[in-house]
Structure formats: C-alpha cells, structure tokens
Amino acid sequence: MIRVSAKTLRRIERPPNAKAEARRVKRMLSAALTPREDQLQKEIVTKLRIAGALVLENRSYGRTGALMASQVGDLDAVGSPDLIVFLPVGMVLCLELKRSAKENPTTEQWSWIKELAKRDQFVMVARSYREVVECIDAQMTPTVDLAKLNCNDLIRRRATLEFVLKLRQLL
C-alpha cells in the first residue's frame, strides 16, 4: 500500500496556474523558434564559403574554451570572436554571433570587440545571416566617385560588388 500525504494530494488536485503555464509555453516556443548559436554559425559559415570567403571558426564554445585557450597579448583567448572571415577582396571581418536581440556579448567578448575596433578591424555582433550581409554591403560598397578611381581600384570595386551580389543571392 502506498501512503500519500494530504499535502501531496492537495498539490496534485490543484488546477495549474494558467499564467505560469502560459509563460512556460511562451518560453518553450521562443526557444524552439530561435536557432541555437551553433546552427546560426553553421548557416553563416556555409553561405560565406559558398560566396568565396575563407572562414576561421573559433570552436571554444562558452567558457569551457578557457581550458583550451592560451593568452593572446593582453587578452585571454576566452571571448575571442566566433568567426574570423577573410573576404576575397582583402578585408577581414570578425563576427561574434548571438541567438537573439536579447543576448549580449559577455565581458570578455566586449573586451575583444573593443580591442579589435581600436586596431581598425571590422568587427560586428550578428544575430542573423541577413545582418552579416547588410553590414558587409555597407562596409565594402561605400558611395564613391568612380571618375576618381584608378584601374586597380575599379577592378577591386567590381570584385567587391560581385562578392556582395553572391552573398545577397544566398539570402
């Protein structure tokens, strides 16, 4: 025979709290609809490689990277960008990926972002492939007077535009 206390019976018989249940369901749906960071990274890496970029992936996910990482200058390797992208037109892009607008970089990641920005590197926090493309487009294709460009600049500009078009086709 199994004995159950009166307190346990009251807890079992009580109808669930509708507000708490709604919050729980909303959290579950939000988590299901938001891609995991590794899925986002895989999508971005695949599309950048198809477009012709060379991509270096930082595989030290989360703080566990501290065990594998060493010191890089004054910065610990923990918090280093998720992706370092070598664009085919001579530009380097450092990407820190986040799942949603609610997520922000950690203190270590902000240290890296600030340090790279100080060194005039192209750094961004991205939450989707579309954000990456729009940022690359804005950085790589500024409005210029084509009459003032020499032949090499025009060739480079054409290669840049072709690369951005390839990225846009993959949207």
What does this 3D model show about the protein?
This protein is an alpha+beta fold and 171 residues long. Helix 6 runs antiparallel to helix 7. It has 7 helices and 6 strands. A hairpin with a 2-residue loop joins strand 2 and strand 3. The strands form 2 sheets. The protein has a 4-stranded mixed β-sheet with strand order 1-4-5-6, with helices on both faces. It has helices at residues 6-13, 18-33, 37-51, 65-68, 107-118, 129-140, 151-169, and strands at residues 54-57, 71-72, 75-76, 83-87, 91-97, 122-126. The chain is 50% helix and 15% strand. The protein is elongated. Residues 64-69 have low confidence and may be disordered.
Task: Describe the structure using short key phrases.
alpha+beta; two-stranded antiparallel ribbon; elongated
Could you give the topology of this structure?
Layout: H1 6-13, H2 18-33, H3 37-51, E1 54-57, H4 65-68, E2 71-72, E3 75-76, E4 83-87, E5 91-97, H5 107-118, E6 122-126, H6 129-140, H7 151-169
Parallel strand pairs: 5-6
Antiparallel strand pairs: 1-4, 2-3, 4-5
Question: Which structural class do you get from the secondary structure elements?
Answer: alpha+beta
Catalogue the unreliable spans. 64-69
Cα end-to-end separation: 63 Å
Helix fraction bin: 40-55%
Series of secondary-structure elements, N-terminal to C-terminal: HHHEHEEEEHEHH
The biggest sheet, with number of strands, parallel, antiparallel or mixed sense and barrel status, is:
4 strands, mixed
Beta content comes to: 5-15%
